[in-house]
Amino acid sequence: MPMPSEMKMQTTNSGGDSDKRRAQMFELARTIEQRADEPLTLASLAGEVGLSPSRLQKVFKEVLGVSPKTYQDAARMRQFKQSLRQGSGVTDAIFESGYGSVSRVYGEGKRSMGMTPTAYRAGAEGERISYAYRNTSLGLVMMAATDQGVCFVQFDDTADLLLDALQREFPKANLSASSAQHAPELDRWIEALDRHIDSAAPKPDIPLDIRGTAFQIKVWNFLQTIPEGAALSYSDVAKGIGKPKATRAVGTACGKNRIGLLVPCHRVLRGDGQLGGYRWGLERKQALLAKESQRTTRQTDQT
């Protein structure tokens, strides 16, 4: 994915052919969304825009950040989730959204939603989520995880407030405090995160259970590519995900991020360089950026 300097270069130097090709890819993306329930092939899509399948694969990914198949999978999953929210039964929603089998959507559903489709429709009913707290230099933090990975990292003033926030996010899940006996991974993860916040320890490699709309997930995945010590503007992120006019929507997605620090929305600033918003307070955002800048400077000096 392009870094800020590359984005600016692309904006400045893009010619008519490049602009035409980008517009063509966005139009094809709209076609994929409208026909997400159909069995689209790379060859058939390539024929619609006069490119070879391999060339389409490359250009589409350059413009939108994902392959045509991944884009269609996300659009189909969005249709499926919408059908569930509107009250369709799980089996009906599966076939209405174009999935060829129940087993296929359950596999994709777990990857996209971190839970089975039935659990998603029921508000995570029956989902097991373990949580733990730690006091850090930035305040009290809670981390919570499903069996897929970390689904929640947030700060607040008290444990009760954090538990209330977790319950609002997953109102029908079975929540339980983590114990080393039953969920040792969560304790290790939060200890690694604590070391990362309070010392020079590197960012822990922790599996994430990210759930949201296709657009939100695209933004959150992009945020994870921003290196420590760097910061982008909301406009940079919008360009980076191939949605240059979606600056406001990017800001909204950052504000709805449930997994602080590990999905580093604190590395996104306003276009004028000001901090902008941060759901856990601007003081924490400023402190995080300062810590990361100091770590990066030390690492550079040592090399």
TrEMBL record:
Residues 26-123 form the HTH araC/xylS-type domain. InterPro entries: Homeodomain-like_sf, HTH_AraC, MethylDNA_cys_MeTrfase_AS, MethylDNA_cys_MeTrfase_DNA-bd, MethylDNA_cys_MeTrfase_DNAb, MGMT_N_sf, WH-like_DNA-bd_sf. Gene3D superfamilies: Homeodomain-like, Methylated DNA-protein cysteine methyltransferase domain, Winged helix-like DNA-binding domain superfamily/Winged helix DNA-binding domain. Coiled coil: none annotated. Its EC number is 2.1.1.63. GO terms for molecular function: DNA-binding transcription factor activity; methylated-DNA-[protein]-cysteine S-methyltransferase activity; sequence-specific DNA binding. GO terms for biological process: DNA repair; methylation. Signal peptide: none annotated. It holds the Pfam family HTH_18. It catalyses: a 6-O-methyl-2'-deoxyguanosine in DNA + L-cysteinyl-[protein] = S-methyl-L-cysteinyl-[protein] + a 2'-deoxyguanosine in DNA; a 4-O-methyl-thymidine in DNA + L-cysteinyl-[protein] = a thymidine in DNA + S-methyl-L-cysteinyl-[protein]. It is an enzyme of class 2 (transferase). Keywords: DNA damage, DNA repair, Methyltransferase, Transcription, Transcription regulation, Transferase. Residues 1-21 are annotated as: Disordered. The keyword DNA repair applies. Belongs to the MGMT family. PANTHER family: METHYLATED-DNA--PROTEIN-CYSTEINE METHYLTRANSFERASE. This is methylated-DNA--[protein]-cysteine S-methyltransferase.
